[in-house]
Structure formats: structure tokens, C-alpha cells
Amino acid sequence: MSTRNYWKRMSHRRLSRRTLLRASARAGVGATGLALVGCGDDDDDDQAVVQAQPQQQQEQPQPVAQPQQQQQQQQAMQQEQAEQQAEQQAQQVEQQEQAQEGTVEAIEREEAEQDQQAAEPEVDLDATVRVAIGRYTAGLDPQRSGSQTNYVNGACTFDSGMSNHPETAALEPNLVQLPEIVDPTNVIFHVTPGVVFHDGSPYTAHDLEFNFERVSSAAEYHQGGETSDHPNEWASARQAFGTDNFASYSVIDDLTFAVETPAPNASLAGSIMSGAVRHVSKAFVEENGDAYVDSVFAMGTGPFRFVDSDPDVGANWTRNDDYHKPRDGLTNPRLPWYKDFEVQIRPEPLAQIAGIEAGEIDAIYNLPTDVVEPYRDNPNFKVLYQPSGQPTHYIMFNTHDSVAEVDGVPNPFLDIRVREAANLAINRQEIIDGLLTGSEGPAFGPYRGTIGYPGEALESRYHGYDPERAKALLEEAGYPDGLDVDLHIVTDFQPIVPIMALPVQEYLEAVGIRTTIKEYLSSEYFRTVRTFELPGMFWFFTNTIAEPETVIGSGVTESGFYAVSVYPDTEIEELYQAQNQALDPGERARLLAELYITFYDNYSWLFLTEVSAATMTAANVNWPVGSAELRGEGTLSAIQKLKT
Amino acid sequence: MQFANLLVIRLIQTILVIWVVVSIVFVISRLIGNPETSLMPWDATNEDYERIREKLGLNDPMIVQYGRFLGDALQGDLGFSYHRTGPALDIVADKVLGTVKLTAAGLVVALGLGVPLGVFAALRRGSPLDWLARLVAVFGQATPSFWLGLMLIFFLATRVSWFPTAGAEGFRSLVLPAIALGLLSAAGFMRLTRSGMIDVMNTDFIRTARAKGLNERTVILRHGLRHALIPVMTILGIELGRLIAGSVIIEVVFSWPGIGRLMIESILQSDYPTVQAGLVVIAASITLGNLIVDMTYRVIDPRIRMAAL
């Protein structure tokens, strides 16, 4: 039976019932009227007698003893009373009818509400939600390194120290409460009481300490330490998140963990407690060993309990009903809206979509946007665009001292007019409309969801597209015949990069910046970028982490791993240091905003565009937030499967 | 030449083929990527990279790595997977059954469809049905298997829901990938069977068989088809290799867990040991399959057997 037929039938049933109710209500009015007429008290009986009197007068002989005038007067009075009573009666009947009509309206209103509820079916809390993904990393350890990180399992089975508000990006408590700033270099983290692992053991400050050590180089536990039995030697993925910024740390009691930093560090909590660092159980890892935790069974505090996993088939979880955060519609992990969660591995995107169409799959995320294009208006699907894992693309100009001169010629990108010309040369809207989904915007630096991101201020400064002005600027800068530079790109990291590089090359050439595209595989590219020795421009992208340190700490500050574009003569470095020492969140956000604006006004990068990915669900699935978080996995608990 | 001697020579040839294939893959895989990059975080220091390269033996000269690889391979050790837990050969071995099932099912489709259609077309030569069968054959040979797979999913799995769109649960999930895989070979078998049958049915011994009063069914199946199948057997080995190779893309399209998908994953992750182990198994399967076909060929065709002896 199709859903449409079902609702059509239900609609018919509702109409019949309504008609029946209306009829019975009218019948009730009629019956009431009859009751008022024929089944009332004695007065009513008299009235009935009075009403019937004219006919009776014709049929019955008049009393002989009463004088005729008196009889006429009495008859006149009785007639008048009868008329008055009849009028009152009519009014009462009318009122009753009106009351009954009101009842019908009330019934109709109630039914309309029921209709509305029926039109918005309930969430099926016992549902199994099936999600298709292209690849599933074999390892179950959430702190495994590099491309081996299993993000699905990390978000389902495990939890992060803190989370970020989906709209404001502000830090929110999770396993750990917001940090208590003792003094500029001492921070205390209070563990959220009552959080338990899936095996029932409590999450304590000892677990917190263990995780710090495990993901960082702060102890000899891993990084090839003797206690590690991790396959192929351990290499944590999470060094990037500030875990090596401790002067000292200690567990004060079961719920309290103290950290001392060498200098004030405003990004510490946002980095080491971020959603990218998932916490394991100290006792579980020590008891079973790293290899077991990585390849056999996953156990954490997350919204789902791990059931089983096969890297070539899929994985299963079931809801953790003891999860410490109640369900709501927010993106951060909450008590899930469904009971069981199944991941199916389907490498081919079209096979994933076919799975939705065949009713085998409920949702897909991180889909290429061109693949979902034909389904945008299909009522059997819901298509949603969200930021991709690397949502903001830009090109860095190498301005390091090592390339201050290239072949005896000064580095052109040290001149702000050349950088401005490059920015004005690109028609971003045409790229957005022609290559992307049309829903993206120009890039202004970091991801829009980053702490302190001053959206309106940046948008008001938009560089725009002005090739004539770009040519004039190049001429002013001493390049009337243009210039030749290399554009270095990575080809296997984001599919859109080599595609988008071609129009960018054409736009730049149109104003006189002639580029030679140098292609690299990611295995070479990131190491090449970090040498800062090659002149030219380097394609790069930001991530979707709310804490900006992972972007500005690596790409903006002069000591960053990927800081190809550095400008010592500007306020940028000063602002970076200032925000990093601003322990007051409001003040830090203000300084970050100033930093972003200064960086943009300096034409520090060639700012390109945002890049989207797509989420697709079946029609009976709500995932309003889509996967609008880092790689999407953090929002899986927000999926709602509706009863049909 | 004795059958046993021939077998030994062919086995040696098989080992040589596997060695050449694996050596080529060894060199190419090291030219196109660095596995340590996928093992390390973005911000890993150069010291981190050096440490892991040292650990994996990637700092040694290529010839040293190759010698170590061959020495270990002779002992059945193809290394540990960089991304999965366990020896690479064990990981590949776990997937062999999936690929064997798919390949066998594809072969059944190819033979089950190709041979009867070929016989039918030959016996009704020039008829509209012959034309139709040949058209199907051309379509089958001209259609990329991945496209055919997607079309099968679209029509038979999503439109009418006869089969699941993906996965490997039960017989129903095997049907569509087997058709997508086997249709190309079916077309080849059909054309070969048809031409073979046409040739055979015009020979003297068929005329003699008919003159002896044998019924037409016996003439066709026992005398005609038996001889027409000899060239089919000849290309069976080649088709077996094609089916195994074709299963790589079919496994991806239908999310079928087999060696093909494992190989694709491993190549994307620069997981050298698993790629090498997978290729050893695939190369061995194809060459052994050819060996078996060759041996069978000699058994069913007395002329070849006699010539060899």
C-alpha cells in the first residue's frame, strides 16, 4: 500500500466521521428541541396545552358556565402568554442550535489539529536508522592517526571533552565543564559528575588525564612507548589540537584536573576539549590493550553503544539510553531519536542514492553536490547542502624570506597591490554558479562557524570582481606586462581543487598573472608546502572546527606549520598573540574578529569561495541540521525517522 | 611430453608470471605515493615522518626493500597491513570467498546465457531470433559493466524492488552483480558458440549421425555442441581472468565485499602490503585458472592430447 493511498483513505475516513458528527449534532439539536417542546416540566406541559389550544378549541365544546367576555379576555391573555413563551422557546432552541454549532466547530477544530498532527507524524523512537557512507576506516580507536581516524565510530561510541554551540560556536560543557581560570597560566577542568562509560564505570579526572597523555606527546605512554601494542607503531592524530602545550598537569581528585600552561592560552580548552579529540576509558584500554581497542571492540561514553563492525560491510550501534545529554534538535551529540544505528558501506554514490530509493537507506552525507543535483525537486528525497569538510578554499602567496627574490627579481606578492589585483581578478560568483551549487558564498578566511567570525563586517569588505582595476594595480606595481608564477595544487585531497584551479588560472591570466599549475598528490603536497621554499601560490582550505586555532595557529601566525603567507609589517601577528592570551571569551571573540578583518583587508590570501557537500535523506527522515559539523558525524544523533 | 612434465612446466610459468606482476606492482606503488603520509597527522614533524619511515623500512634503497619483500614473500609473509589489523595475506584471504562467489556466479551467467543462445542462434541462422541474439551479444560486449550495473540497480532494485541495491546477504544480492559481471563474457561465449555450431553442423560426421537415424537433439547436443565447445573452452581461461578483473569494479558498484574493493581501498590508502598481497592472489588465481583450463582442454580434446604426447 502506498503512503499516498493510505492518507487518501484516512482522509476519506475523517470526512465520513465529521459528517456523521455533524449529523448527530444536528439531530441532537432537533432532539433537544423536541425535548423542550414535549418533554419539559409542568409549565412546558401547560405551554404545550396552550399551543395546541386553538385546534382543541375547534374540536372541543366551550365551557358553558363562563361569561363570553371573560373567556375572550382569558383567551387573549393565554394567547399572549403562549406567543411570549413560544418566542422564548424559539430563542432557546436557537441558542441551543448555536451552542451545538459551536460544538461542531470545536470538533472540527480538534480534528484539524489532529489532521495537523497526522500531517506531522511522530518520531519513531524505536526506529533503525541506516546511513550509507563510501568508506569506513578499519580501526576503532578514536585517536588513531591521520587518514585512519574512524570519525563515525568516534562520534557514536565516544565523546569529546566539550562541544560547541551549533549557532554561536561557544564552548559548551560535555564530559568536562567549562574551564575554571585560576590565573592566566593555570586552568582547572571539572569533570561532569554522573557521566558513565557504556560498561557502567564512571568517567573521572583519571580518564581525562589518560586521554591527554594518550593523544599528545606529554607522556611516554604512546608514540612508540613500550606499553603500546598498537599495530605498526602508534602515531596519534591529535597532536594538532594543543595537547603539547602543557607545562604541567595533575589530577586533584576524581572530578578535578589541573593544567598549567607555559603562557596564557585562550585556545587551550577549545583545542584539547574539541570534538576532534574523543575520550576512551583508561581502565578499558589498560585492561584490554591498544590492539583490542582498535580492532575488536569500542567502548566509550558516547550516545551509541558499539555492537559490531566490518570495514567492508558496515557497522552497528544501539542507543545508549544512559547518555548524559537529553535529546533535542541541536547538532551536538544528544540522546538519539532512534534506537539502532546501522552504517552500510557503499563506495559508489549512485548506489547510495539507489539505497534510499529502494528503502534500504535513510540518509547519506558528504555526497558530491553534482550527484544530488537531479534529485533536488524529487519528493521522495530531501536534499540539503552543508559545508564540506574543507569548506573555505583560498590560495596562499609565499611571502617568506626564503623567496624574497626569485631569479633576482623581488617577490611580487610582497606588494599588496599585486595581492589585491589577484583577488580582484577572480569572478567568484561565476565559479559558484557554474562549478558549485550556487548556494555558496565567497570566502573571507575561516569557516563561518568559527569563534569570533565577523560575518557582516567581512561581507561589507568583499573584494569583488574588477579585472580592469586588477590590471591597473599590476601596472602601478610595476608589472605592465603581467607576471609569471607557479600555482601549486593538491589533486587527490578535494576533488573540486583541480577542477576549480582551471577557471582560477584563466581569471588570473586575464589580468596578466600567468600561472603554471603544479600538481601534487597529498602525500607530497603538505610536506612541500611546509618547506616554504618554493615560490608562487599554494592552494589550501580551512576546516569546520569552531575553535580557530587549528586554522590560524597553523596558517596565520608566523610560526604556523602552513603559514605560507606571513606579513611581519602588519598587526596580524600582534592580534594573533593578543587573542590567544585573552582568557575572557568575549574579548577573545572581539580580537579574533579584528584579526580576521585585518587579515582580509591585507589581501593576505587569494580568497576564493566556500565549497559545499550534500546531505540526502528519505522523505520520512528529518535531519534538519544535516551534517553541518566536522565531517557530519557529530550530528548523527539528531536524525529523526518519522512514523508512517 | 608427459602430462606431469607439462604440468610442472606450466606451474613454473605460473610462478614466473606472479613474480613479474608483483615486481611491477612493487615498483609502481613506490613511485606514486608515500604511505607514511596517510599514517601521520597533518602537522607531524619531519622527525615523526623519519621515525615511521625508518620503522616501515621505507628509507632503505629500493633494491634492499625489494630483496626483503621477495625473501619474506617466499616464506608466505607479505607484511602487515598499514591500515588494517593483521597480516596482509590474511586480510586478502578473508575476501577471497566473496570474489570467488561473485566470479563463479558471473561465469554461470556467462555460460548459462552465452552457450544456449549461441546454439539457438546457429540452429536458426538468419532468422529474426538469430539477429536478436546477435544484437544482444553486441550490446553485451559494448556495454561497460559499471554502467550496466547501475542500470540493473535502477530498474530491478529501485523500480521493481526484485533485488537489493547492494550488499552480500543471500542469493538475491548475488543476482544483479553476477549479471553485470557475466553479460560481457556471455556475449563472447554466444558468438563463439554460434560460429562453432554453424561450422560443426555442416560437417560430414553430423550428416553421418543424422543418416544413422539419431534424433536431432542427440545430434546437436552430443555431437554438435561437444565439438563447438572446444573453442569456448579455449577462451574460458581468458574470460576467467576478465571476470576476476571485472569483479573489482562490480564489487565497488554493488558494495560487494571482495578482493576488488579491498584493493581499491588499499590503493587509495597507499597500503602497499595489502595491494601486493591482493595482486599476488589475483595473479595466482588467473594463472591457475588458465592452467586448469589448459589441462581440461587436453582432456576433452583428444587431438590436443595426442599431439602433446
Give a written overview of the molecule.
The complex is a heterodimer of chains A (644) and B (309). With 644 residues, chain A is α+β, with helices and mostly antiparallel strands. In chain A, the strands form 6 sheets. Chain A has a 10-stranded mixed β-sheet with strand order 10-11-12-1-13-20-14-19-17-18, sandwiched between helices. Chain A has a 4-stranded antiparallel β-sheet with strand order 5-6-8-7, with helices on one face. In chain A, helix 1 (3-38) runs antiparallel to helix 3 (68-119) and helix 18 packs antiparallel against helix 19. The N and C termini of chain A lie close together (12 Å). Mean pLDDT of chain A is 78; it is low at 1-70, 218-242 and 628-632. Chain B contains 13 helices and no strands. In chain B, 80% of the residues lie in helices and 0% in strands. Chain B is flat. Chain B has helices at 3-32, 35-39, 46-56, 62-74, 88-123, 128-142, 145-159, 172-201, 204-211, 216-253, 259-268, 272-300, 302-308. The model of chain B has no long low-confidence stretch (mean pLDDT 84). By secondary structure, chain B is mainly α. In chain B, helix 5 (88-123) crosses helix 8 (172-201) and helix 5 packs parallel to helix 12 (272-300). The termini of chain B are close together. Chains A and B meet through helix 8, helix 9 and helix 16 of A and helix 2, helix 3, helix 7 and helix 11 of B.
List the helices and strands and how they pair.
The complex is a heterodimer of chains A (644) and B (309).
Chain A: H1 3-38, H2 42-59, H3 68-119, E1 128-133, H4 151-157, E2 159-160, E3 162-164, E4 171-173, E5 180-183, E6 186-190, H5 205-215, E7 248-253, E8 256-260, H6 268-272, E9 278-279, H7 282-288, H8 290-295, E10 304-310, E11 314-319, E12 340-345, H9 349-357, E13 363-367, H10 369-372, E14 381-397, E15 405-406, E16 409-410, H11 416-425, H12 428-434, H13 455-459, H14 467-476, E17 483-490, H15 496-511, E18 513-520, H16 522-531, E19 537-541, H17 549-555, H18 572-581, H19 585-601, E20 605-618, E21 621-622, E22 640-641
Parallel strand pairs in A: 1-12, 1-13, 17-18, 17-19
Antiparallel strand pairs in A: 2-9, 3-4, 5-6, 6-8, 7-8, 10-11, 11-12, 13-20, 14-19, 14-20, 15-16, 21-22
Chain B: H1 3-32, H2 35-39, H3 46-56, H4 62-74, H5 88-123, H6 128-142, H7 145-159, H8 172-201, H9 204-211, H10 216-253, H11 259-268, H12 272-300, H13 302-308
Helix pairs in contact in B: 1-12, 5-6, 5-8, 5-10, 5-12, 6-8, 7-8, 7-10, 8-10, 9-10, 10-11, 10-12, 11-12, 12-13
